[in-house]
Amino acid sequence: MAKSTKKTKYYTHEGALALILASSEDSEDSQYDSEIEEMFKQQLDDILDRSMSKDSDADWEPQSQTGRPPAPTPTEGGRERSHSAATSATSPAASPTATPTTGRSRAARRVRGRGRRGGSRGPSRGPSRAPSAVTGEQQWRDVGDDDVEPALLDFVPMREPGPQQRTRLATSPLEFFKLFFTDAVLDTLTVNTNAYGAKRHDEKQVVWHNICRADIYSYLAMVIYMGMVKCSSLLDYWRGSRLYSLIFPPSVISRNKFLRISRALHMSDITADEENVAKRGTPAYDRLCKIKPLYSHIVEACKAHFQPGRHISIDERMVASKARISLKQYIKSKPTKWGYKLFVLADSGTGYTWNFFVYEGKSPGYGKGLSYDSVMSLMDFDLLGTGYQLYVDNFYTSSHLFLDLFKKKIGACGTIPANRVGFPKTTINDFTRGTPRGAIKWIRDSELLFVKWMDTREVVMCSTIHKAFTGDTAQRRVKTAGAWEVVHVPIPAAVKDYNQHMGGVDLSDALIGYYSSSHKTMKWYRTFFFHFLDIAIVNAHILYQQCQRGSMNQKEFRQALIEELAELGTPSTSRSSTSQVAAPPNPAASHKLHYLDEQDEAKRDSTGRAGRRLCKLCHRKTPVGCSTCGVPLCFVATRDCYNEWHTQQGM
């Protein structure tokens, strides 16, 4: 059999081109659906491995989606794609019948990919995003350029600023305090504490003795007292040694009752707690269920009894805690770095805490970011009204937030980072190296004013209520020729007002921190109870100053409140409450061993069985004790509790 010879067929240039066009037009005879698929099959890149015989930027333009002739020639296809991309870049609105494309974003990605892998080939001639009015057409203006002063928003609060009419009926510190801790709140606290205490003691097979509202008064008086008189341990307040010997604590409440209430203190219904625990892991689970009753009431009371002035501020507050719970947050810039985070709206002039919420680790619910949602949640527009001026730091400031507040007739001012979305990106006439102190640059974009001020470092502000420069100056100490002198440098009005009105939350934190009632506890929700108590006391003191116009400071206010709460409390059953312990000149000779029942010696037999009590140290029965300390102590050959106990007490 003769072998068949394979003949090679050669084509001219014109014939090969005609064959390519014919094969591309007849797509049914091709095994590839497109040129891109064929290149992918050959492990070639659609962008980088195209023919570079005519290096044109048209090859980098986005391919049109539909309606183009199948597989055109490279030259014709490049022209058509370039025309389509230019049309989409210059025409912001597409035809109603046209299919929307994403050519512009794809082109941007491809240009970036080309720059990384193929190197730079000069300025891009493809389509690009149209410059905005701020970044392309505007530039940073100097302090001498004229700025349009924004119209001052009319201040129309829903109520008269300051304490409300019902609030002004109170006269004493106790009456102002009971605006927040009302009788209904104390009764709820008593019922829930009794229920939790009974449940807790049933598990330990110990009888729980119910408490009443008067016991809560005594307990609150003692907690506030502990904020003023600090001891390292709770037991030190009832110690009878020379180093302590505090008369007030045992006269108000006994040590055992105070500790019993502290262990059982509960703000929520235990039935609601059990139902909430069953919802753990579902969206219906409430992480703040155990503080919700008191938490909600304190927030409503803060808003009901006071109307803020025109200037308000929003900031975070940290409640110190070392609890191992997911609610705990970390803020590096705060003095208290670890603890529970609260977002607080406070009056800038008085430091009154008007609204707050506890951060649970998620946004309040507007869906526009934590900073935006926090501000909108705290701004109760129905109670505030219009014309307020809000001051925030760079965590909250954004052009989107400020414009939305301006639509609600609320002005805003705050520091802003230069990389925040909406901030002008232009560098024309911007600060340069060596810019002197006091230099000011600004840009106005409709209602928004962006201003830069050079102090020891650059300060960047955004505001909807200020003019760029109003002629204000600030004093700064500078060193000239080896000597310090005070100079006056220009300062923008936005920076000056920000420094004056931003500290509302910081002032509130300082007032709370002076005599904070918080102390160590094993339960996370009791930390919130002590903080709510501090908020109530500080706000009550501010209301007292506003209504009474008196000169009573916070320390005197707390002292008076403690005395009034102690008078309403249950008389103490503590044995040390009626004894006056004086420091003898010779402590070693002051303690004397005696029989506990010296009044009736006839009842005491030779073994000393009559009149026995439990030893303070070993809790066994003994007929003797210390006459000075008034405590029973064993004094036998096998148990020398008398000397051992005095040694432990440092006597």
From TrEMBL:
Give positions of region: Disordered. 22-143, 569-592
Enumerate composition-biased segments (Acidic residues): 25-37
Q: What is this protein called?
A: PiggyBac transposable element-derived protein domain-containing protein
Q: Which intervals carry biased composition (Basic and acidic residues)?
A: 38-57
UniProt domain PiggyBac transposable element-derived protein: residue ranges: 172-541
Q: Which UniProt keywords apply?
A: Membrane, Transmembrane, Transmembrane helix
Composition-biased stretches (Basic residues): 106-119
Q: Where is the composition biased (Low complexity)?
A: 84-105, 122-134
**Pfam families listed in its UniProt record:** DDE_Tnp_1_7
Q: What residue ranges are annotated as transmembrane? A: 216-238
> What segments bear the compositional bias annotation Polar residues?
570-581
